[in-house]
Amino acid sequence: MRVYTVPNAISFLRLLCVPVYLVLLFGRENRAAAAWLLGVLGMTDWVDGYLARRLNQVSELGKALDPIADRLALVVGIGSILWLGAAPLWVAVLALAREVTVSVAVLILGAMGAKRLNVTWWGKTGTFLLYFAFPMWLGSTSTLSYAPMLGVLAWFFALPGLAAAYYAAFQYLGLSRRALAEGRAERQARTAPSL
After folding, report:
1. Does residue 77 lie within any of the structural domains?
2. How far is 62 from 4, CA to CA, in rounded Å?
3. Domain total for the chain?
């Protein structure tokens, strides 16, 4: 299994940035810096996958690490912004509910023997857009000179982001049935006695 690759290093770095974000937000009470860091994490959301394909460094670890980094940063980011009341409650709840539901479903499917589900384009797009919306709402409550504009711009990312994220969740329903059937078929083929 390939472990030491550039995309895996980026995914791991993104995981390490999650506690840094929390320190900036709650330890230093610097909403502007926390918003910028979360926004940068959103911008790098596509980088690791793109580099994996471009550098021919796709790995099983990377396929697992990338969505973990995405979901953890997004759930922590949205949860903390919701805690502070910096984003509309209904948007944050819908975004969190979708992320938690998909994460739990992936774990259950894995335990049931399903093949690993690949992230869809719609799922990536939804995550990418939400990664911009929530830092903008956080930034809108900061001392940044352009803070009022951020609160308005956030809506232009949040609404299509939620739509794409929920569309992807419905796509995963069909994909998960297929992944479960394929995973079980592969397991039966491995355990079948050879003649």
Report:
1. yes
2. 10
3. 1
Mean pLDDT across the chain, nearest whole number? 88
User: In sequence order, what are the residues at sequence separation of 6 or more whose Cβ sits closer than 8 angstroms to the Cβ of residue 84?
Assistant: 25, 31, 138, 141
Q: What is the pTM of this model?
A: 0.84
Quick: pLDDT tens for 146-174: 999 999 999 999 999 999 999 999 998 88
- Residue 14, domain CATH: 1.20.120.1760
C-alpha span between 100 and 56 (Å, rounded): 31
Domain extent, residue 51, equals 6-175
Distance between alpha carbon 132 and the CA centroid of its chain, in Å? Answer: 12
Mark out the alpha helices in the chain (DSSP H runs): 6-22, 31-43, 47-54, 60-84, 89-111, 121-139, 147-191
